[in-house]
Amino acid sequence: MISDIYFMPLGGGQRVGASCYFLRIGNANIILDAGIGKKNGLEFEPDFYSLVSTPFVQSMNQIGQIYISHAHMDHVGCLTKLMGCAGRSAVYMTEITKMLTEYQLYDRIYCSRSAGDPGSGRDSGEDSRLAVKSLLENIAAVSYMQTIDFGIYKASFFPAGHIPGAMMILFDTGKRKILYTGDYSLDPTLLTEGCKVPADTKIDTVILCGLHAKHPDYVKKSSSLFKKVNFVLENAESTGQPTACVVLQLSKGIEFLKALNEQNRRGIPIYIDRPLMGIIRKMEQLSIPIMNQHNKMIGESPPAGPHIFVTSDSGNRFLGGYRKIPVDFTLHEDFSDMKRFIKAVNPRQAVIVHCAKEYSVFDRTIEQEVMSDGDCRTQFIFAEERELYKL
Ligand SMILES: [Zn+2]
Ligand SMILES: [Zn+2]
Hints:
Elements: E1 5-11, E2 20-25, E3 28-32, E4 37-39, E5 42-44, H1 48-52, E6 65-67, H2 73-76, H3 79-85, E7 90-94, H4 95-114, H5 122-137, E8 140-142, E9 147-149, E10 154-159, E11 167-172, E12 177-180, E13 205-209, H6 223-239, E14 243-247, H7 250-263, E15 270-272, H8 274-285, E16 295-297, E17 308-311, E18 323-327, H9 335-345, E19 349-353, H10 366-371, E20 379-382, E21 389-390
Parallel strand pairs: 3-6, 6-7, 7-8, 12-13, 13-19, 14-17, 14-18, 15-16, 15-17, 19-20
Antiparallel strand pairs: 1-2, 1-21, 2-3, 4-5, 9-10, 10-11, 11-12
Helix pairs in contact: 4-5, 4-8, 6-7
The site of one zinc ion has 4 residues, from loops.
């Protein structure tokens, strides 16, 4: 049937990492996200071979559209490779995602070089950067609330919360409406508003990034970020010792700096490394304010006196002279937020992907939780990688 809809996770099914999903609407072949994953220090990628073994796709050149929900590496890390093999597809993401993607992929090249990757000298690093840049230049940026009509379906884009630039994508075939959430947050974060789901639209199917869909006891603690921030500020104040915060993910580095700035009432100088400063300046050009008068870029040598240094590079050459504080935090939606989201959208069908294993055999899933709720009509699919589902 011309309006049949199929779905297959190529990565990021019942685990986190390498998010990449095939969606077929009528005869349109679509890919949602193209991430990489990491397990035990090794990277893994989506399985594109399982896609070309379906009856629908013989060659990656038959992919029409690629949509990138947001710029985390588990959603975008494999994009340049995918663009290389799906040469005829058009790629859609927001302007901010595009900018963050560029930086994350550059950063990756930089890291592989400094890790002593043989043959990746300065010049080949520069070549790879240019290759990434020219690929990304061909991407058309989309805006929130924009709709593109592809004939067989329309795609509209909505704010997803989570990180700046993140979008949800609504596919409307005329008969069916399918929402891909990407990672999302219901409530505002330091740098984003919460997600905005189209209120007046009856959504039939939600493809939901449900990291904690099997973790009923997981409760999001936005306070953990603020505890860390206060710890760092108190340490810098009370000891007078230069304090370095190592935040390994660029986007977390930005969020952490924003939180530091909000709590830094004494005006302790906060220095930032060059990669982080580059990305922050770009974001500010896109109207996302982050810095204040106490922020400076680190110079050729570490400054004297008490200060805080925020870096995304654990191998930074200045770190020897600092008290180092590793920083990591997560602000993913928890179990009750997910329930709230599903109840608000009340889709006929929820396809759960990007879903981590249960912590114990006694953990109930979001499906069991929602089933016990009388006015919820949602049927669940916990989609497995390489399995083809008719939606
Ligand atoms: Zn994410
Ligand atoms: Zn993710």
